[in-house]
Amino acid sequence: MWDGKEARPYWSREHCGASGLITYRRNHILVACYDANEIVELDETGKQVRAIDKDSAGKPFIGPNDFTADAAGGIYVTASGVYDLKAPISGTVLYLPRAEARSSK
Q1: Which residue, 15, 36, 61, 104, has fewest beta-carbon neighbours within 10 Å?
Q2: Max CA-CA distance within the chain?
């Protein structure tokens, strides 16, 4: 964050591998933590609210890396899978609907 005189981190976490972010719930941010296989929600001060590491069926995220919003208020999340030349190709696209975005914590 820039205060006009110096830059300081808004948020960081060891072993996160932050690779994407998106505005969420008007004043929160979602961060894709590729290395930690999590999506982290931050409040407006940079405090972690929660970390999501599984989809609604309980399947763990593998390599979440980017976001985009749709016109209905939902968020698409890409998860590219394991980064290894010997690993099977396993990328996926996940969706967080607006209704879930407001009710889950």
Answers
A1: 15
A2: 48
